[in-house]
């Protein structure tokens, strides 16, 4: 029994070769190992530095990490490099009482673009070395940072790397300019379409308002014409109805209104000579009789609710009532 178990364990250990055991171990380790965060990619800059003491500019290419940076400098013929390690950057930052990230960001700021208020220098430091320096102000104090650069072991390769970076940057900028130009052209076309649509809508609005206004004027003029026709028709009817009604009213009113005293008065008036003073009195009397006759004709035609009748009823109600009884003795005056 024991021999059989021992033989089975031996066969099982033989079946698992070293490669499979290593793969199993690595899988277990990766499953229990915490995931590491990806390090951010470095930034790249290139500065065309024009120095006062030099006739030709130099090019400073910088590669910026979180806690260190690398510099590649060339004047087209010779090249220099500077590898600022994390320890060196930490020591420099401690000397200036700055965090490492702030020190790297400030160096990138002054070596990424040339500041006119900063004094740059690239002086000899012996044995072919160069010392790159720049100044800046902090809290009213002018400070200077300096980094020593050693000759590049391969100047051509370093210069070619700087030129390749500049060419790639130039190509990227050209592509960006093309994209921006195309985007601008598209926006320009869209703006022109919007402008044309706006002008079209404005013209349609003006045409619509003009058409509506013309229709409104036509309707208004037709209404005015109809009102004028109705007014003329009513005035003609009133004028046509005045004469027969005046004759009827005068024939009906002669006998009731005239008594013996009035006859004698009229006969006495006939004997008197007519003067110019009596003409207005006679004219006003005739006009009053015509007015009352017109009122009665309106009453007979339209009733007492007519506007013309209602106005004169308020002013001469008693006289009109008396005339009504004379003309219509059987009807009551309401």
How would you describe this structure in keywords?
alpha+beta; 7-stranded antiparallel beta sheet; 16% strand; 63% helix; rod-shaped; 7 strands; Dna Repair Protein Xrcc4, Chain: A, domain 1; 9 helices; 334 residues
Q: Fill in the CATH topology of the domain at 43-153.
A: Dna Repair Protein Xrcc4, Chain: A, domain 1
Mean pLDDT score: 76
How many H/I helices? Answer: 9
Cα-to-Cα separation, first versus last residue: 143 Å
Low-confidence parts: 1-16, 27-36, 254-280
Structural class: alpha+beta
Question: Could you say what the CATH architecture of the domain at 43-153 is?
Answer: Beta Complex
**Shape, per Cα inertia axes:** rod-shaped
Q: Which sheet architecture does the biggest sheet show?
A: 7 strands, antiparallel
Write the layout of secondary structure elements.
Blueprint: H1 2-15, H2 18-32, E1 43-49, E2 58-64, E3 69-74, E4 79-84, H3 86-95, H4 100-112, E5 121-126, E6 129-138, E7 141-151, H5 155-257, H6 260-271, H7 278-302, H8 307-315, H9 317-327
Helix pairs in contact: 3-4, 5-7
Short description:
This protein has 334 residues and is an alpha+beta fold.
Write structural notes for this entry.
The chain has 334 residues and is of the alpha+beta class. Among the domains are: 43-153, DNA double-strand break repair and VJ recombination XRCC4, N-terminal (Dna Repair Protein Xrcc4, Chain: A, domain 1, Beta Complex), CATH 2.170.210; 258-327, no CATH class. Helix content is 63%, strand content 16%. The protein is built from 9 helices and 7 strands, in the order H-H-E-E-E-E-H-H-E-E-E-H-H-H-H-H. It has helices spanning 2-15, 18-32, 86-95, 100-112, 155-257, 260-271, 278-302, 307-315, 317-327, and strands spanning 43-49, 58-64, 69-74, 79-84, 121-126, 129-138, 141-151. It has a 7-stranded antiparallel sheet with strand order 1-2-3-4-7-6-5, sandwiched between helices. The radius of gyration is 60 Å and the shape is rod-shaped. The termini are far apart. The model is unreliable at 1-16, 27-36 and 254-280 (pLDDT under 50).
